[in-house]
Amino acid sequence: MAYRTLDGVDVAGKRVLLRADLNVPVRDGKITDLTRIERLSPTIRELSGKGARVIVSSHFERPKGRRVRELSLAPMAAALGEVLGRRVRFAEDCVGVVAQQAVERMQPGDVLVLENTRYHPGEERNDPACASEMAKLAEIYVNDAFSAAHRAHASTEGVAHLLPAYAGRLMQAELEALEAALGNPERPVAAIVGGAKVSTKLELLGNLSRKVDVLVIGGAMANTFLAAQGVPVGKSLQEADMHDTAREIMAGATQAGCEIVLPGDAVVAFEFKPNPPTQTVAIDAVPDEAMILDVGPATVRGLVGRLGSFKTLVWNGPLGAFEVPPFEVSTVALARAVAASTEAGHLRSVAGGGDTVAALRQAGVLDRLTYVSSAGGAFLEWLEGKTLPGVAALG
Ligand code: ADP
Ligand code: MG
Predict the structure, then answer these.
(1) How far is the CA of 379 from the centre of ligand 1 (A)?
(2) What is d(CA 267, CA 217) in angstroms, rounded to the nearest whole number?
(3) Which stretches of the chain score pLDDT less than 70?
């Protein structure tokens, strides 16, 4: 994946359109997590410090091409100002006269946030007219929104073809971490894939099994693999129509020289609710009426014991139903062991996925792995081996 970075780009006095991801979590009108804004700030500080006029654009949720007051980016502009510790202006549109006039008033070093790009139907359609309206605002385009790069929209892809286009520092960091984890990793490289369904992660499993040396399958999706091998999984969540697929993935992995590791024991319960009575059983001894809700302690010990032999680890998907206690136990234990191996310097660890990030936060290790991607869907598509249009446009 070739892309241009900001190294050596002269931005002094220039108008720079910076595609950011200000699609932050909001509850009752209040921003609940500033992580995305904090991660974005180095790029803005760098551009502004070099005398650029920094014009920030982003989408927020799904206004579907209409102006929806509640989905304004005005609160994110204020939050960005607080994080940067400086004045950040806001324009009530991302294109047209309103945006142009706000840009004209900018001085070198100023930061302006534009209104939600998805207020315009042309954004998601990647309408060339919409992209060219955006391009009119600036002389340089910088994309720092890896998390939106899997969508070919006007602000992520269309506009990148109309201006000199570069990856921002956050985009660059994400791409470098991913490249080091899977593009050109130090081996042996292992992947842990968990979560609920095989059907949502088919391409991901296929791609990983061709690239990694060891593929560990946990979570409810392991149930499908176990059932496909004739191991009874009782009342566990599993996908009966995915058994052939699971067997194909396993055969493909074997052919590619990838070892597949399935759980050897499990924590089961007869009801899916917080703190029910549980049993730990060998994987071939799951009672008919029971559900597998977490991998067992022997499985975790086995994985932790092997961490020292891996150089690189990619992780997506919790090992158990971590939202419901005590079925977070294995995920949390493994997360802490991965963090310790990473800190000891013998493991490069990269993780991502919405629920995975939540589980790592719960384990208190969010900033103790080599890289945790907050990119959600874009991270998953990258794990699937897809070319992300927003990244391709920077090459
Ligand atoms: P991510 O968002 O990180 O990509 P997924 O969405 O694929 O991860 O998977 C997370 C979901 O999988 C969680 O809601 C979790 O409760 C569920 N899950 C994992 N293991 C089990 C299990 N054994 N039984 C039921 N649900 C499970
Ligand atoms: Mg999820």
Answers:
(1) 16
(2) 15
(3) none
